[in-house]
Design a protein that fits this description.
The chain is built from 17 helices and 33 strands.
Length: about 650
C-alpha cells in the first residue's frame, strides 16, 4: 500500500490540492486519510525491499482517485486507490507517471518486477440516484430496457457486437444522476457515459447483485457492454507499454464471466505484440473454496488467482486446528492444472489490507512462534509467497484487525492508533520508522527467500503430500530437472514430535537444509524418522534422485469410468511409481487434433476436464504419457462418451 510505505516527497502529500482534509484527502493523524507515502519513498527504500528477498512488488491501485468520498463523519480519503476517476495517470498524492517509469527501470535493473493492482468492476462514486434511494432492484422486478423499450437480457447479449443501445432516462431501474461539476471527471472520457453502468443500486452480496450491484456505492460498470471491454483493454495496454510486468485484478467475482474471457484474451494479445510473453495476470476472487477459484484459471484466462483457500487452511493449521484443512486444499490443486501451468503459479498469502494481518490472526497464544511457522509454510509450500508490507516488522493491528486497523505506515506515524498498537514481539509500535532489517520476521523471511532462491525445488518444484496427521504435516518438493527430494515437515503442536515419514527415496540419506533437527536415513521402504520442535518446520534433502520401479510401468486410467460422462470430469491415472510426471491430452475419436490438459506429478496423477461444451454422443479419447525417474516413457489411452 504505497501511501503507507515511505514518504519520499512531502510536497505531494496533499496531491496538489488546497484546503482541509475533506478537500485534499490528507490527514496523517487519521487512519482513513492519505498519510504521505509515495513512489519517491518506494524508490528510496528499494534496498530494504530487496534485502527481504523480494522478486516483485505489487502496488495497490495507483491511479488518480477521488480524494474524499462519503458523507459527514463517514467521509474518508482514497489513499487505498479503489476510487478511481482517471485510469491514465498516477494519483498526484503518490507521484507522477514519470516517477513510475523511474521505479520500473530501477526494479528491472535489480532483476525485480512490478505488478499493478487494477480495477474493471467500478469507478469512484460519481453517479447517484437522486431521491430514489439506492437499495438494489432485481431484474425480475425491473428488467433492463433498450432505447426502444424492449426488455434486455444482459446474459444473452454480453460481449456481443449487437449490444443494444440504452437510454439514460428509460433503460435502468434507477435514472442515473451526476453533479454537473463532475460530468467530465472520469478519464478516459467514455467512462462519463452513464449508460455504461448498471444503475441498479447497492449489491446485497448475493444472487445477481454480486455482478450487477454497486460495490458499497461505487459506480458499477456494465462490463457486458463490449465498449467497456475494449475500453479497458486499451487503458491497461497503455500501462503494459509503460513497463508494468503484470496485473492483480480487483473484485473479479463481481464481474460477469464473458468479460474476463475477452479481457484476458485482449491483454494476452497485446503482451505478445510488445514481446512481454511472461506478462502475469492474477485475480482477486474472495473465496476460500478451490472449486470456485480454479475455473478462473482453467476457463477464464487468468494465469492465477490469489489463493484464499491456502490462506484459510494455513491459518487453521498454525492456530492448532490440525492439518486436515491443508490436505483438503492441496488435494484440489489438480483443478488449476492447464496446458500452460498449475497451482505452483498461485500467489499465496497469510493476510492482507482487507482481512487483516497474520500477526493479528495468530495473536492469542505464542503469537511470534505461530507467525514464524505461518511464514515457513508460506515459503516452503507450492505457490508464489506474497508478504503484506509491515508483516516483516511484526505489525499486528487493533480493533477487529481489518481494513484501516491493518494499514499502518512503516514511516513514523502521526496516527495515535497506529503508534499505540503492539508489535508481534510485544513492544509498542511507537511513532518511529519501522525499517529494521534485524526485526525477527524480517530476518526469517529473508532467510526463507534465500532458501527458495538457492533450491529450485522449494520454489517451483512439484509438491507431493507425504503425511497429514493431527498437528503434523509433511510434503516433498521435487524439481523437474534435478529430481531430488526436498522433504518438508511441519509441527503446529506445542511439543516436539518424531514423525515416521514415507519418502520418495528409499535408502537415501537425508541431510538438514533448514530448521533444528537431525539428519536421517530412509529405510528400504522409504520411511524416514524426523524430529520436529514445537511450532516449527524443518527441511531435509536426499543424497540421490527419487526412486523408480525396477521396470517401466504403463499408466492405468482409474477415472472416468468407461461409459457416459458430463460436467466437470476428473481424469486420473495410477502410474505405479513413487515419482513420475504424466502429461494428459484429449481428442475427439477420429480426429488428429489433440488438446493438452496439462501435466501432473505423482503416482496418482489427475487433471480436470470441463466437457460441458461438447455435444452429447461425442466420443473422446484421453491419452496419458508418463515419464518416471529413469526417463522411461509409457502411455495409455481411454475412450468415453459425452452424455
Amino acid at each position: 500500500m504505497t501511501d503507507r510505505f515511505a514518504n519520499g516527497d512531502p510536497t505531494n502529500d496533499t496531491g496538489g490540492l488546497e484546503g482541509d482534509r475533506y478537500a485534499t484527502g490528507f490527514d496523517p493523524t487519521d487512519t482513513g486519510f492519505y498519510q504521505g507515502g509515495d513512489l519517491a519513498g518506494l524508490l528510496e527504500r528499494l534496498d530494504y525491499i530487496e534485502g527481504l528477498g523480494v522478486s516483485a512488488i505489487w502496488l495497490t491501485p495507483s491511479f488518480a482517485n477521488k480524494p474524499v468520498q462519503g458523507v459527514g463523519a463517514n467521509r474518508s480519503g482514497g489513499y487505498h486507490g479503489y476510487w478511481v476517476t482517471d485510469f491514465t495517470r498516477i494519483d498526484p498524492h503518490l507521484g507522477t507517471n514519470a516517477e513510475l517509469e523511474r521505479l520500473i527501470d530501477e526494479l528491472h535493473a535489480r532483476g525485480m518486477r512490478l505488478y499493478f493492482d487494477i480495477i474493471t468492476n467500478h469507478t469512484a462514486d460519481v453517479i447517484s440516484y437522486g431521491l430514489a434511494g439506492h437499495s438494489y432492484i432485481a431484474t425480475a422486478a425491473k428488467p433492463y430496457l433498450d432505447a426502444e423499450g424492449n426488455e434486455v437480457d444482459l446474459a444473452s447479449v454480453a460481449g456481443s457486437d449487437d449490444f443494444p443501445e440504452l437510454d439514460a432516462e428509460t433503460s435502468f431501474p434507477y435514472a442515473p444522476v451526476v453533479d454537473p461539476a463532475e460530468a467530465d471527471i472520469k478519464v478516459p472520457a467514455w467512462l462519463n457515459d452513464v449508460t455504461l453502468y448498471h444503475n441498479r443500486g447497492d449489491t446485497t452480496w448475493a444472487g445477481e447483485s454480486v455482478t450487477l450491484g454497486d460495490f458499497a456505492g461505487l459506480d458499477d460498470l456494465m462490463t457486458e457492454d463490449p465498449r467497456v471491454v475494449d475500453g479497458f483493454i486499451d487503458v491497461y495496454s497503455d500501462w503494459m507499454d509503460l513497463g508494468v510486468d503484470g496485473f492483480r485484478i480487483d473484485t473479479v467475482k463481481h464481474v460477469n464471466e464473458e468479460f474476463w474471457a475477452a479481457f484476458t484474451e485482449g491483454l494476452d494479445a497485446h503482451a505478445a505484440e510488445i514481446g512481454k510473453d511472461d506478462f502475469f495476470v492474477f485475480g482477486e476472487v474472495f473465496d476460500a473454496d478451490p472449486n470456485l477459484l480454479a475455473p478462473y484459471v482453467r476457463d477464464r484466462g487468468f494465469d492465477a488467482v490469489l489463493d484464499f483457500a491456502f490462506q484459510s487452511a494455513a491459518l487453521d493449521f498454525v492456530n492448532g486446528a490440525g492439518s486436515a484443512h491443508l490436505a483438503e486444499v492441496f488435494a484440489g490443486d489438480a483443478g488449476y492444472t492447464t496446458a500452460d501451468g498449475d497451482a505452483r503459479a498461485l500467489p499465496t498469502f497469510l493476510g492482507n489490507h482487507d482481512m487483516g494481518r497474520i500477526g493479528y490472526l495468530v495473536r492469542d497464544q505464542d503469537a511470534l512462534a505461530r507467525d514464524e511457522l505461518a511464514h515457513e509454510l508460506l515459503f516452503l509450500a507450492r505457490g508464489q509467497p506474497v508478504v503484506y508490507a509491515g508483516d516483516e516488522q511484526g505489525f499486528v493491528g487493533a480493533g477487529d484487525g481489518a481494513d484501516r486497523h491493518a494499514r499502518q505506515s512503516l514511516f513514523a506515524t502521526a496516527t495515535p492508533e497506529y503508534a499505540d498498537q503492539p508489535l508481534i514481539t510485544g513492544e509498542i509500535a511507537g511513532a518511529v520508522d519501522r525499517y529494521d532489517p534485524d526485526a525477527p520476521l524480517y530476518r526469517l523471511i529473508a532467510e526463507l527467500a534465500e532458501l527458495r532462491k538457492s533450491h529450485p525445488a522449494l520454489a517451483t518444484g512439484a509438491q507431493l503430500e507425504r503425511i497429514a496427521d493431527g498437528s503434523s504435516y509433511a510434503f516433498s518438493r521435487v524439481d523437474h530437472a534435478e529430481r531430488v527430494e526436498h522433504l518438508v515437515v511441519l509441527n503446529a503442536g506445542g511439543r516436539e514430535v518424531t514423525i515416521d515419514v514415507p519418502t520418495l527415496t528409499p535408502g537415501a540419506a537425508f541431510s538438514v537444509l533448514y530448521g533444528e533437527t537431525d539428519a536421517t536415513t530412509a529405510d528400504a521402504d522409504g520411511v524416514a524418522s524426523v524430529a520436529v520442535p514445537p511450532l516449527s518446520a524443518v527441511v531435509l534433502v536426499a543424497d540421490r534422485q527419487v526412486g523408480a520401479p525396477d521396470a517401466a510401468v504403463a499408466p492405468v486410467f482409474t477415472s472416468p469410468e468407461p461409459g457416459e460422462i458430463d460436467g466437470i470430469v476428473h481424469v486420473d491415472v495410477d502410474t505405479g511409481a513413487l515419482w513420475s510426471e504424466t502429461s494428459f491430452s484429449w481428442r475427439e475419436v477420429g480426429s488428429d487434433e489433440w488438446h493438452g490438459l496439462g501435466t501432473a506429478t505423482g503416482p496418482g496423477a489427475r487433471v480436470v476436464h470441463d466437457v460441458r461444451p461438447l455435444a452429447d454422443g461425442t466420443r473422446i479419447e484421453y491419452r496419458a504419457v508418463t515419464i518416471d525417474a529413469h526417463d522411461r516413457r509409457t502411455a495409455a489411452s481411454h475412450v468415453v462418451t459425452i452424455g
